[in-house]
From TrEMBL:
Entry protein name: Stage III sporulation protein AH
Manganese recorded as keyword: no
Residue ranges crossing the lipid bilayer per the database entry: 38-57
Gene3D superfamilies: Stage III sporulation protein AH-like (1.10.287.4300)
Entry keyword annotation includes Transmembrane: yes
InterPro entries according to UniProt: SpoIIIAH, SpoIIIAH_sf
Residues covered by region (Disordered): 68-107
Keywords, alphabetical: Membrane, Transmembrane, Transmembrane helix
Organism encoding this protein: Ferroacidibacillus organovorans
Sequence ranges of Polar residues compositional bias: 78-107
């Protein structure tokens, strides 16, 4: 009877030991899986923070409706890239080459050479600014002009001179960044259109140019348009 009882004890105990060992291995595997998931989530959080920091560093605050910045290839047939920055993140889309000229181009240029194109653009811009300066100075020196008109002319003249200084700084910075030539045009409603001498621009290059122009001129990034011309 003692032998049978001992044998029965051993037989009934064996399944319990195997079940315990199986349960122990399962807990170990679960612990390893949890550690791997924790490491993966931490890495993804760091990567996301790096991306957010890259796209927001040095840019002006976004408007509630979102910012829209277009990079146009102009009439040279290069692809057009649109960079939109809103509350949901940055979206980059590329469309086929456009066959029509850029609508915001207001200075006529007859030369086909890229270098001559930028020289002509800059000369036309400077001529327009010189005429405006002469007009404002004439108004300021007019003894028949009222104090209100003279004060407004002074304000416009100071703004134009500050604008010219900012244009020169932007040009120097873009040349230092590797672009052979550039021209900065102030459009109505406080918008800026920047042309750089390049066959095309990537989204990252466009964002970098927009940040440079925004920091130098004080104009918000959603009011800046960058175009590549070659």
């Amino acid at each position: 009877m003692r032998c049978r009882t001992h044998l029965a004890f051993r037989v009934t105990r064996l399944p319990y030991c195997r079940a315990a060992r199986h349960e122990s291995m399962t807990l170990k595997e679960r612990s390893t899986l949890v550690k791997r998931q924790t490491v993966w989530l931490s890495a993804m959080m760091v990567f996301s923070l790096m991306l957010i920091g890259y796209y927001t560093l040095g840019t002006a605050p976004a408007t509630p409706g979102g910012n829209s910045v277009s990079i146009n290839g102009g009439s040279s047939g290069t692809p057009q890239t649109s960079v939109s920055a809103g509350s949901s993140g940055t979206k980059v889309t590329t469309s086929p080459a456009a066959s029509t000229p850029v609508k915001s181009q207001t200075v006529p240029v007859s030369s086909n050479s890229a270098s001559d194109w930028f020289v002509s653009m800059q000369m036309n811009l400077e001529n327009s600014q010189s005429k405006l300066i002469q007009t404002l100075q004439s108004t300021i020196g007019d003894p028949r002009a009222s104090n209100t008109v003279v004060s407004q002319a002074y304000s416009e003249l100071n703004a134009l001179q500050s604008q010219q200084a900012a244009e020169g700084k932007v040009h120097e910075q873009l040349v230092g960044a590797g672009y052979p030539d550039s021209v900065v045009i102030y459009n109505p409603h406080g918008r800026i259109h920047v042309y750089v001498q390049a066959s095309k621009l990537t989204a990252l290059q466009a964002v970098s140019i927009i940040n440079t122009v925004s920091q130098t001129t004080g104009v918000q990034s959603n009011l800046i348009t960058v175009s590549a011309h070659a």
